[in-house]
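User: Sequence recovery, please. Input:
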């Protein structure tokens, strides 16, 4: 009961998930992949990258760093399970144009470098670079709110998660 009262009267601002890269925020529904666009993996937002760096969106632990370097999942210190998937169908590149900068089990701080990639080379290979940022345990939260539209800098608040 008191948790609900705090929410009503401004007690908790929620859990912040930062933009893992600079670029332009795109609504998840506009991502050209139904798994992401329909929210099958969870709610969130996407970023059309302006650079080839992916940073930790919060403090936490890396759960999976894909061998191909195109995606990473982590659990934040607040318990949010975040998937960052750089590009659409980019697993097919077999790691070409991607460099993993962390591994499963690593503890990371917000802003730590997770992945480097070459956005122009990915596009030249025929792949979209739009990057979904998904909260995979969405059902644990009362709401997942996108805080930014348009241009975003790495580290800006992208999503706010409200506890149930």
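Assistant: Recovered sequence (164 residues):
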């Amino acid at each position: 009961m008191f948790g609900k009262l705090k929410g009503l009267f401004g007690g908790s601002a929620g859990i912040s998930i930062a933009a893992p890269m600079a670029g332009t925020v795109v609504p998840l529904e506009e991502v050209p992949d139904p798994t992401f666009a329909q929210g099958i993996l969870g709610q969130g937002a996407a970023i059309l990258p302006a650079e080839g760096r992916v940073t930790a969106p919060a403090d936490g632990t890396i759960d999976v760093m894909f061998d191909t370097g195109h995606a990473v999942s982590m659990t934040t210190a607040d318990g949010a399970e975040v998937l960052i998937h750089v590009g659409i169908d980019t697993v097919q590149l077999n790691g070409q144009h991607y460099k993993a900068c962390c591994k499963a089990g690593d503890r990371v701080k917000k802003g730590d470098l997770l992945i480097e990639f070459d956005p122009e080379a990915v596009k030249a290979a025929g792949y979209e670079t739009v990057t979904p940022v998904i909260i995979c345990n969405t059902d644990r939260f009362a709401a997942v709110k996108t805080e930014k539209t348009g241009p975003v800098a790495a580290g800006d608040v992208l999503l706010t998660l409200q506890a149930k």
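The chain has one domain: 14-163.
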